[in-house]
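Regression report. Comparing outputs from two consecutive submissions.

Submission 1:
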Amino acid sequence: GIPAEPLFRSRDTLRFTRDGQVYPSNTEHYYLYASKTYLELKEYEKCVNVSRRALNTMTHFTANNAMWLQWRIAKSLRQLEDYRGSLKYLFEVKKIQKDWYVEKEIAENYFFLEMYDFSLEYALKSALNMGPTDAKFNLYTLLYDLLIHSHPDYAQKHEELVEMIRTGDDEGKRELENELVDIWKELSEEYE
């Protein structure tokens, strides 16, 4: 199991520096690893609690570590079906982390809240954001679900892309994704 909360909380500002690089304090390390471990073990309430405790008690964080704690809270709250709570943290994360997967998480939370316009807006932003095609498998599945009624022809292209990812059709995948970029841009114009 994860050891009890560290007794060295009063030393949370003590950092280690080596070769000009600043490293997290022992307290910060504890919270980061506890948070990550609870998320990986699918102990979502514990992940939320330890991450919030870190954010509420620590006065200094190294690099973007506070953001990663917020990310884990958001991921955990989603699993606990607190989609609005998850969105609150995701929008904080998005201020720092501009990657596609943050927008995908926002889109998925809106989807579960049945706020389909917002879901589509963020799914399109995510699709247009740089990232490896294979890693966007769930995003393309979400876009299929969002488009199947309003744009069945576009939805079908997403289903084809998902199948190409499954089968490893790299050439077809690149070609289809390039075609989809124009579709995503066209659909995104509605949200500008």
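Submission 2:
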Amino acid sequence: EAVQRLTAARDAQPDPNLLVDIRFNLSQALLARNDVDGAARELEAALAAQPNNRRLRLTLIDVYMGGANPRLIDAERTIREGRALAANDPALLRAESMMWLKRKDAPKAVAAARAAVAAAPKDDLLQNTLLGVLLDARDYAGAIKEADQMIAADKNRWWAFMQRAVAKRYANDKDGAIQDFEAALAAAATARN
């Protein structure tokens, strides 16, 4: 029922700004129905009306990259267009990193993740993303080195201990991995309190 009401509102709305909001909400309703193509169409139309709208762009990129048949070429185009408007947007750089991972291009994924961290060096999500990308790229030594630096800066980064433990495990340092997993649990307990 939400899709029908939002579709009727979209078709009757003369105000372009309200139309963008309606299209966004309609895209979410379509996603709830697993209509990924319909959601993408609504987001594309909304983004065409407001190309600087970061929320629309990031949502559209997520829609393109999700699902059983990701539209990675469309995701890349949308990221490239967004980077032309905001070259160092950390969220776009993170999305670019994820897109390159899906395309199995580890060097480009790592480069984009590093650029995202450089654009927002205090953002823990981006730092955690970098560690995950390094692990996916099988650069275990690089992940351990980066995690060492992150942990040195803040001993409460449980996620850095965890990522370092995974890297050590794949680097065949079982004892070091166990120690880091235990440190991750301790740091998480401290952060929770």
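Expected: both submissions complete independently.
Actual: both completed, but the second showed a warning that disappeared on reload.
Relevant detail on submission 2: The radius of gyration is 20 Å.
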